[in-house]
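Standup notes
- HV: blocked on the assembly model, inputs below
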Amino acid sequence: MLRLCLRHSSRAASSLTCPRCQHHNVLQLSNINHTASTIQLPSYTLFRSLQTTPADSKDRISLRKQLKQDAKSSKAQKRQRREQEAASREKWELTVGVEIHAQLNTETKLFSRASTLSSEIPNSNVALFDLAFPGSQPEFQVATLLPALRAAIALNCEIQPVSRFDRKHYFYQDQPAGYQITQYYEPFARNGYIDLYKHDGIAAEDGDHIRVGIKQIQLEQDTAKSQEYPPSTQLLDFNRVSHPLIEIITLPQIHNPATAAALVRKVQSILQSCNSVTTGMELGGLRADINVSVRQRSEDLGAHQYGGIGGLGQRTEIKNLSSFKAVEDAIIAEKNRQVTVLESGGVIEGETRGWTIGSTETRKLRGKEGEVDYRYMPDPDILPLLIGEDLVAELAATLPTVPDTLLDMLVGPTYNLSIEDAKPLVDLEDGARLEYYQDVVDILRELQHDLPAKAQDDLGRVAGNWVLHELGGLLTKADLPWEAERVTSQSLAAIIDNLQRKKITGATAKQILGMLFDGDRRPVAQLLEEENLILRPLSREEYIALAEAAIELNPSMVEQIRSKNQLGKLGWFVGQMMRMGEKGRVEAQKAEAILKELIVS
Amino acid sequence: MSLLLEAERFVANQSSYLALNAFINNLCRSAGRWQDQVKDADLRWEQGNPRSKLDGRLIAFKDNICTRNLPTTCASKSLETFTSPFNATVVEQLENAGAILAGKTNLDEFGMGSHSVHSRFGPVKSARRGDDDAGYLSAGGSSGGSAVAVATDQCHSAIGTDTGGSVRLPAAFTGVVGFKPSYGLVSRWGVVAYANSLDTVGVLAKRASIIRDVFDILNQHDPRDPTSLPPASRSRVASKFETSQLSTRLKSSPLRIGVPIEYNISELAPPVRRAWYHSLEHMRQQGHTIHPVSLPMTKSALSAYYILAPAEASSNLAKYDGVRYGTPADGHIRDQDQTERYLYAKTRGEGFGYEVKRRIMLGAFSLSADAIDNYFLQAQRIRRLVRHDFDAVFRAEHPLTSISGVQQSDRTGVDVLICPTAPSPPPSISDLTNSNAVKSSLDAYVNDVFTVPASLAGLPAISVPVSGRSDGDGHADENLVGIQVVGQYGDDELVLKVAELLEGHGL
C-alpha cells in the first residue's frame, strides 16, 4: 500500500481541471509573477537603485530623511485608503457568506474503522473503502456523529431527525472514489445562528452585537494530502482521506470584512470549547471559503438570491482561506475589485477565485464556463441517518459551557475582569489558562478571607494581571508553551498575597516569580526568608538620604525637571534610588513622593 | 470418489469448450490445489461430515466478484491487471461451505450489456446454435459466462450478478435456471458496483434445487454491506410469511397465479408465447388458479431503469481514473504540458469499452444540474410507482414497507407472477456485431423489458427453461425458453418452489 504514495501522476492540477484548489499550491509560480507585477514598490527602493549610478551630491538625501518621508507618505496613503474605504462603504453595500470546513475530533474515519491519528508513515491509516477499492462499501461510524452534533448544538442549529448522504463528483488525485460523500440535499443540521459581540472583534459599523444565521451544517469526507515534486511527481498520502469534516454554511448576512474574520475566529473557539475539533486554522484543522458580493446602496435591489436572502449582487467565491487575516484581507481585496469593475461599467462574473497570503488581489481560478457540475447523487449504499431527540437532548445537557457564558462570568462581580483580559483567558490553551486562573483566585480568596471586602473585590482583577501579563510575559520571552506546573497556582497565589499585604515590593514579587519560573522549587515563604526578600520598610530619613544621593549625582537632570517641568523623568530617579538602596526595600511609590518633595516643590 | 470424478469432468469441459469463452480465468488454465481440495471433501462426505451440501463442488464466479487468488477484471481493460486483496463475502461463504472456485466467468464489461459481447476478452458464445447456421447464439448478458459454464457442465453452479436481468436473461438464453434473490438478502461486499441500488448477487444452475442449496449458504446478513438486510428485519419478513393465510400456500391451498397483461406484447416471439402458455396450463392442471393482473408502469420501467442504472454507474466508475485503478494512458508523463489536463479523459477513454462509455455519458447527463429534474428524479418517481404496481397485485403485503399491525385479512391479490423472461429467443452473435451499433444498443435494451421491473422493485425472480416447441417441432432442447416467476419481496422460498413445479415436467 505504501507504493501508492509513490505513484507518479501528472500535475493534473491546472486551474481548469482542478475544481477546488485545495491542499495544493500548484498555482504558486504564476501567482508570484502576478504579485510582483502589481505590488506597489515603496519609493525608497526606487531611490536606492538610482543611487548606484553616479549622481549629483545635491540629489543625495540622507537615509534618515528618506525613511521619515516614506513613513509620512505611507501614513498619508493609509489615511487616503481609509477615506476611500469610508466613501466606498457609503456607496456600496458588501455582503459576505462564509463556509467553514472543520476536521472533527474523532477516533475513526467517517466510513471505515481506520484510525484518524496523524501518522508519520504515509498511507498507514487507510481501510479498503478509504481507497475506494472496487467492491468495498462504506461503514458509517456512528461515533463520528457525536462531535458533529455537539458543534451543531453549540451553533444553535435544529438537528434533523432524518438526513442523507450524497455524492459530489469531480476528478482529482486526492479523491480516490472520484466523488466526495457529503450531505447536499438533506444535511443533518439547519437554521442555526451565531452571536457576535464587540469583544469578538466585529467591525465598529456593526455596533455591539450582530447575529449571523447558519443555513446548514453537513457531514462530509476530507481528501488525501498531495505533495508535489516537480516536474512530474506527486506523492499522495491517504491517511487524511475520509477524515470526518463538518461544513458550516452561514447565511449571507455579514457586511464587514472584520466581522467575517471575527465570525470564523468565534466558530473556531466554539468548536474547540465543545471539543468538536482537535486543531484550529493554524494547523489546517479549519478552512474557510468566502462568498462576496456588492451592490450599490442607491440602486434597486440586486437580482441575486443566496440562502433565501434576496436582493444581492452577483457573487464570487474565494476558496480555501487558512487564517483569520486571510479571510479579512481577501474580502477587502475582492470587494475593491468588484467595486472597481462595476464603477468602470463592467459586470461581475460568477466565478471562483483564490487568495495568497500577503497578496493584494484575489485571482481568478475558474470562470463560469469552467464551473464543475458536481452531479450530486444520493449515495445508494448509505442508509439515511436517523438521529433521535433523546440523543440530542443528552448531548445538549452535557455540552461544556460556551465561551460567551464564560466571558459573562469573568466580567461579572465574581472576577471583575475587563473584557480585554477575560477574552484571552477563555481563548488561551483551550481553557487550560482559565482553569489555572480560577485556581489562583480560589486559593487567594482562602488566603485573604481576613482582608477588608474592598481588597477581596479586587482580587480577581489582580490575579488576572499576574496570570496573563506577568506569567504570560515570561512565557513569551522564553518562547515556551503553557504549562500549569511551571509556577503552581499555589505559589502564584502566595506571591500575590504577600504583595497585597505589602510584605514584599512589586519588584520583589516579579523577581520571585522569575525565580520560580526558572525552576526554583522552594516554597514561596521559604524563598522569601532565605533570600532575605521580605520588606523591611525604610524610614523617611533613609528615603531622603537616598534621594539626595541620587540628586547629587545627576544635577543636570534635576535642572531639566525643574525648568521644563518634565515630571516624567522622576521615574528615572526612582529607578536610581532602587538601585542604590538595599535590595527589595525601596518602595517605588514612597520614593517618588520623596523625590517630588525634594525636586519639584 | 464421485466428487473428484465430477470435478475432473467439469475441468475437462473447461478445456473442450474454451472456444465459448465462458471463462476469463479457469482451473484448466491455472493448475491449482483443486484436486486435493475435492479429495478432502470426498473424504468428509465418506466420513459423514461434509461442510455443507456444496462441499467439494466447483462453483464459478462472475469476474466482477472479488477473489484474492484470481484477478478480478470486470472484463474491462481498465482492470486488466487488477487482483483484489480480499475475497467477496459470497466467495468466503461458499469456500467456508467447502465449495471450490471453478474460475472467473466472462461478462459484459462491468455488467453493462445484455449479450456478453462487450468484453475486453471477447464475446461469450452460447453452446446453442441457430437453426440456419447463423453461427453462435448470444449467451445473454451480462452474466453470460456464468450461464454458458453451467449449460456446458464446466462447473456445478455459478454465481452471477443481476442488476436489470443479468442473471435471468443469460439463463433464459442458455436454457438453465437463473435466480435473482430479493435485494438485500445476499451480501454485495466485494461485488464491484455497477448500480448499487439495483445490484444483486444471483445464482445459476441446471436445477432449482441446486440454486436453493447455494442460496441457503448466501442468504445471511453481512455487516460489511450496509444494504444487507439486518437480522431483525429478516425475522420480521419471515414472520409476515408465516401468517396463517400465507403459510398454507402450496401445502393445503392452491396458488393464485398472476399473468401481467402488459407483458403480452405483439413483439412476443411465437415460441416464447407458447412456452408461457404451456407453463400456465401446467400450473392450472395442478389446481392453481390463473388471474390476469395489470402492471401499468411496465413500459416506463425500462426507461427508468436505463436512466437510474447509468446514473449510478457513472458515479461508481469514476474511480477508474488511472491514479489508483485503471492503467494510466501512455505518454501522459512524457508529453506533460499538452496532455496533463486530459489525463483522466485519455485514461478513461482508453480503459473503457464502447458500451460502458455510452452509459457513463448517459448517466453523467441525467445527473447534470440542468437534466436531473427531468431525468434522474423522474426515474426515481417511476421506480416508486413500479413498486406500487407490484404491491397492488400481490396478496402478501410488502413486508418492510407495510405498516405493521394493519393486516388486510381479505386481500385478493396473487401469490406469484408468471411471465416470459425475454420477449424473443437469443439472436445470433453475428447479427449483434454486424448491424449498426446504435440500433443494436437499443435492441439490446429491449431484451430487459420483462426483467427490469422486478429489479426496480427489488423482488425475487427466477428464470426457468420451458419448452416453446409446438407439437412435433424439432428437439426440445433447441426450443427452451426462459419463463420467469416473480414474487413479493422476501417471498424467495415460494419463487424457488414454483420454479421447481415448472421445471422438468416434460414441458
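- HV (later): unblocked. The CA atoms of residues 536 and 585 of chain A lie 6 Å apart. The longest strand of chain A covers residues 209-221.
- Next: hand off to the docking folks.
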